[in-house]
Design a protein that fits this description.
Strand order of the largest sheet: 1-2
Radius of gyration: 13 Å
Helix content: 40-55%
Order of helices and strands: HEHHEHEEHH
Number of strands: 4
Structural class: mainly alpha
Largest sheet: 2 strands, parallel
Length: 115
DNA sequence: CCGATGACAAGCA
DNA sequence: ATGCTTGCCATCG
């Protein structure tokens, strides 16, 4: 199969994002890979955007691009909200860039593989 | 069908 | 490190 079913994709993405532990973060690419579509990192972003209209709680602030940059902060109510949420969880953000990105980075493939 | 766009990523100068 | 180009692929006009 491996064709893209929108609902399946969205559910898979939500499932991953919801499991991101507090004080950690991951990238769109990681999630895309984790759900089996390594080339659909952009669609992950689209899902995040749509999540704003969703009733499900989604810690989208824990999802950044591969550089640890808060690329989607503009899509929050206020541009500082994303950073505030992250800092409230113990993540340091400097100039839209997460500090200690390598430490903060959470790899779903590695952390959830045995589930 | 074609071209442009997009919460991305990797490569290169 | 900054900035541009290419690859990727769904979505839109």
């Amino acid at each position: 199969m491996l064709q893209l079913d929108k609902e399946t994709f969205i559910q898979a993405v939500y499932d991953i994002v919801i499991r991101i532990p507090q004080g950690r973060a991951t990238s769109y690419g990681m999630i895309a890979k984790a759900v089996g579509f390594p080339n659909h990192s952009r669609l992950v972003g689209k899902v995040m955007k749509e999540s704003g209209s969703s009733a499900i709680k989604l810690p989208a602030h824990r999802v950044v691009n591969s550089s640890g940059k808060l690329s989607g902060k503009e899509y929050f109510g206020d541009t500082r909200e994303m950073q505030q949420l992250l800092e409230a969880e113990g993540i340091t953000v400097e100039n839209n860039q997460i500090k200690n990105w390598k430490k903060v980075l959470w790899d779903p493939l590695k952390e959830i593989s045995l589930e």
